[in-house]
Amino acid sequence: MGDLFDDYDREGFFDEVFADPGVRTHYQGVVERLRRLSPTDLERRERIRDGIFRSAGITFTVYGEDAGIERTFPMDLLPRIIPAQEWEVVERGVAQRVTALNRFLEDLYVGEQAAIHDGVVPRWLIHTAEGFRREAFGIPVPHGARCLVSGVDLVRDHEGTYRVLEDNLRNPSGISYVLENRAAMTRVLPVAFAEQHVQPVDHYGPMLLRALREVAPPAAGEHPVAVVLTPGVYNSAYFEHAFLARQMGVELVEGRDLVVDEHVVHMRTTRGLQRVDVIYRRIDDDFLDPVVFRPDSTLGVPGLLSAARAGNVTIVNAVGNGVADDKAVYAFVPDLIRFYLGEEPILPNVDTYLLWEDEQREHVLDRLDELVVKPVAESGGYGMLIGPAASGEEIEVFRDRVRADPRGYIAQEVVALSRHPTLIDGRVEGRHIDLRPFAIAGESVEVLPGGLTRVALRRGSLVVNSSQGGGSKDTWVLEDDADGTGGR
Amino acid sequence: MLARLAENLFWAGRYVERAEDTTRMVDVTYHTLLEASPDVAAQTWEQLLEVLHLRGAYGPDPVDVATVLRFLVLDPGNPGSITACIARARENVRSVRELVSSELWEAINDLHLALGSRDLGEELDDQPFSLFRSIRRDCMTIYGVASETNPRDEGFRFMALGRLLERAEMTCRLIDVRYGQLEALAGPSQRLLGAHAGPPGLARAGQGADRADFHHWITVLKSASAFEAYRRRYRASMDPADVVEFLLLEPDLPRSVLFCLTGAMRQLEALSAGRASRATRLLGRTTASLQYRDVSDLFDEDLHTFLDGVQDQVAEVAETVADEFFRHHPSGMMHAIATG
Prior knowledge:
The complex is a heterodimer.
Chain A: E1 18-19, E2 22-23, H1 28-35, H2 39-56, E3 59-61, E4 70-72, E5 75-82, H3 84-110, H4 114-117, H5 123-127, E6 149-151, E7 153-156, E8 162-166, H6 175-188, H7 190-195, H8 204-214, E9 226-229, H9 238-248, E10 251-253, E11 258-261, E12 264-269, E13 272-275, E14 278-281, H10 304-309, E15 314-316, H11 327-330, H12 333-341, E16 352-354, H13 358-366, E17 371-375, E18 385-386, H14 392-404, E19 409-413, E20 419-424, E21 427-436, E22 438-441, E23 445-447, E24 452-456, E25 470-477
Parallel strand pairs in A: 5-25, 9-10, 9-14, 14-15
Antiparallel strand pairs in A: 1-2, 3-4, 6-22, 7-8, 11-12, 12-13, 16-19, 17-18, 17-19, 20-21, 21-24, 22-23, 24-25
Helix pairs in contact in A: 2-6, 3-12
Chain B: H1 3-32, H2 38-51, H3 55-58, H4 65-73, H5 82-94, H6 102-117, H7 120-126, H8 128-149, H9 154-192, H10 200-203, H11 211-223, H12 227-234, H13 240-249, H14 257-271, H15 278-291, H16 295-298, H17 303-326, H18 331-339
Helix pairs in contact in B: 1-4, 1-5, 1-8, 1-9, 1-11, 2-9, 4-7, 5-6, 6-8, 7-8, 9-14, 9-17, 14-15, 15-17
């Protein structure tokens, strides 16, 4: 009888599991286990998994389809495994990046703007970034932890080099899947899991709560009150908001639960008003405070920004972080690391072309069929051109767009994302993946081992976003002493 | 707990109860009118709409059985229809799913989905009895599940409080529906004599009911699940005054107004533990005035006005609960609201 991996074809891509001599060392134990599973066995385990996710109600809402249908985010049974030495580099690289970005944002909004004065990044670029918020000037954040939660998207290229694709410094989501995937995997493949000495992830809730308390305003006293602020049950990530509040044991509030009086934020409880010190908000800047931003927002809290400015409440993540999520500003992050930390970047960017530079733009326009073009302010895989997969017509549309608004787009070399064996209809096939590790910055920066591995489930697709038909994998970072063969 | 979530639970309790009690009232009205003339039937349905405060929402359509039944049972545009109440109860519970047992959510969600997937119009034409029975049973399942799967925390108590206050009001209305019917049966000439004359069914208080009345009062008792208990207490006697007293004041009957108010009092005392509460005082006053009421007096007055008065007092209690638990404002803003 053949096994799962018999017909597996790497098709020339960098594969996470298979290399030329065979299975990579850190995958040997798991692959061995999976080879021994019969098709019925596999089906049974898939059924167990589906039951777990359905009964936990782990769903996200897809916009634009009928009635905002709730779907489960499919988790593949084959885990992604990262050996300890490899993870150590990723961890340091992510922490370095988040540290530099926090320094940059702190300097921009409450400091001397040294990076601008010294010409590291142009002032006009900052001021034209969609996520830039003048209203954030002068709002303090203890420890300068403006990006308290970051979800840095990493990909591996054809050589297996980890590269940063996006920083996601506003409201990165997905952490609930990391924790739920882990909980499910330990029940679906308990023996394989136990053999591997995997670093735990379930301390995320306490880790986040500790950081939230560390950034409480000095006035808060010894037991600062933190809350999670959600747009409400109809938001696509509501499940995660509720999940996080539960993990931390804090209240999940909506804008209408909060009221600002004399620049102090309170929540309305059945026992009266209770002061709130830290707000982990999962609402975009624009909807946060109708006094300052969109006046028609009913999700926010009038007066919230003035309370933050008065130092009576800390808004997490800080207002205005989006400036650094602009994909053109992203191109300057390696320079910002050198400038603020005096270090070489540990994790490189994807090679990026800035289209207001005449030479780069013309070079890009000549090679549109080989490159990826992205709008600077979008995320989630929306509105981009993937040159090699695009029609002549689509390419011409983007040519016009780039010429009309060179600041509005960037171009990147196509990264042949690494692939990972994935169960597709009972067979194992290679699918492209990425990795979103979650970093928490309070007094110091800590990275949760692993993160969310997303899988582009459609054959050949490079887009892993859940909104575009992606799935996920539980991500195992091995303990130091593990070599993937069960420690024997 | 967050005031908004407490309020959602309070209303979830009210809406499920409202759906159940509306079912009971529609059921009793429908079945007592099967042999009535079209005029009397129309007038009685009209009374029911008044008692449920839905006459305005019903609009100018002629009041006939088929139209009223649809309006009260399945009209999504009628906020008081049974399906609308269940939908709103579900929305309220949905927003507090974190705070209640998953069994409770499932029970209420199942009922909502089941009502959505059935052809209720056809069931109303064909078999209203079984439809009403199944809705009543599903509502009771929801309370059973709520009671057997949730800790007695603040959230549970607010839900129970909402349910008991709603039921107290609705039992008043149930008696009132019967009163309206008697008025209708008495005909216009009787009513022209004015409120003091009182309707015939009540005028004979103390003398027992005639045969038609006998049947109707049984139906009222049954709709409050009180018939068997009544019979054990009063044997074969069917005096309207006894029935009204039983439904208003019987301390051990789960749907009597007094039972609901004393139960609501227990929840409210637990919720306001140690705090001065105006809602508790108001409720205590209402309960006491009801408790020491001599029912035979009621028949010398206008029962309808008395029942309205009880409902107003219960509504005031609910309003005060909202002020004291759900609507906190900073002191500065309170002033702005008061003067602005």
